[in-house]
Design brief:
Elements (H helix, E strand, L loop, with lengths): L2 E5 L8 E5 L5 E3 L3 E5 L2 E3 L10 E7 L11 E3 L7 E5 L4 E6 L15 E5 L6 E8 L5 E8 L2 E9 L9
Antiparallel strand pairs: 1-9, 2-8, 3-7, 4-5, 4-6, 6-8, 9-13, 10-11, 10-12, 12-13
Length: 161
């Protein structure tokens, strides 16, 4: 599962925003999500412009935010989650290792996200020099060569110079 580890600039960025969860969709802490019709979802996520990563589970009960790891949206939009939305955040993501393996030459390459809620991975088969959701900025993490440090390349709030 992806993990927020700070910001690519100026240490840690703690910018979060509360969003309702799309009806019938379950999101888990650590899931990458995107916006659709004003609600967050992780359904069919590959190729979508990402908003950020879920942090806090169901947040419509502020006294229980830290204890809830999943949230399932309802028709009324009353189930909400906190999402880290800062486009400079960096994350640790495990690669799926299906079509090929992650390598040092993947630094600077871009990949899409794959997987269901609570089990999202970096899809190594989607390697691209210019497009895709996540950009690898560091190969390996704490000695684990199946993991990479990434930033969101295709982010809703990213400003291109």
């Amino acid at each position: 599962m992806p993990e927020l580890i700070g910001a690519a600039i100026n240490g840690f960025a703690g910018v979060t925003k509360e969003y309702p969860v799309a009806s019938g969709v379950t999101v888990t802490d650590g899931d990458f999500v995107y916006l659709t019709s004003g609600r967050v979802t992780n359904a069919s996520i590959d190729g979508k412009t990402l908003l950020g990563i879920v942090h806090g589970g169901q947040s419509n009960d502020p006294s229980n935010v830290a204890n809830t790891q999943t949230a399932t949206g309802d028709a009324g939009g009353t189930v909400k989650v906190l999402v880290h939305v800062d486009p400079t955040n960096k994350y640790v993501v495990t690669s799926d290792q299906v079509a090929s393996t992650l390598a040092i030459t993947d630094v600077g390459q871009n990949f899409d996200v794959t997987g269901a809620t609570g089990a999202q991975l970096l899809d190594v088969s989607t390697r691209s020099a210019t497009t895709n959701q996540l950009e690898v900025i560091q190969f390996g993490y704490k000695g684990d060569l199946t993991k990479a440090v990434v930033i969101i390349n295709e982010h809703k709030y990213k400003v291109n110079a």
